Amino acid sequence: MSTKKLSVGDRVEWDTSQGKTMGRIKKKLTSPMKIKSHKVAASKENPEYLVQTEKSKKLAAHNPTELRKKSG
């Protein structure tokens, strides 16, 4: 896990069952929401980040502890 602060537009990497995936942070989530049928339990105390994958352009929410900031 990177100790760098995450911001909108940052390029990040995270682990999936298929291996490492890259994407960009689109939004910091600070309130509960749904992405398709998935409930995202984000709050001001426990924010999550909306990330768009580089290859498939799909959106997903991730805890900041799962994301590693990359250069570029």
Overview of the structural elements:
- The structure is a single chain.
- The protein has 72 residues and is an all-beta fold.
- The protein has one domain (11-70).
- The protein is built from no helices and 7 strands.
- The protein has strands spanning 11-16, 19-29, 33-35, 38-40, 48-53, 59-62, 68-70.
- It has a 5-stranded antiparallel sheet, with no helix packed on it.
- It is globular.
- The model has no long low-confidence stretch (mean pLDDT 91).
Give me some keywords for this one.
0% helix; globular; five-stranded antiparallel beta sheet; mainly beta; 72 residues
Number of domain units: 1
Sheet bearing the most strands, described? 5 strands, antiparallel
List unreliable stretches of 5+ residues.
none
Following the backbone from N to C, one meets helices and strands in this order, namely EEEEEEE
Q: Strand percentage, roughly?
A: over 45%
The Rg value, from CA coordinates, equals 12 Å
The largest sheet has its strands arranged as 6-5-2-1-7
First-last Cα distance: 18 Å
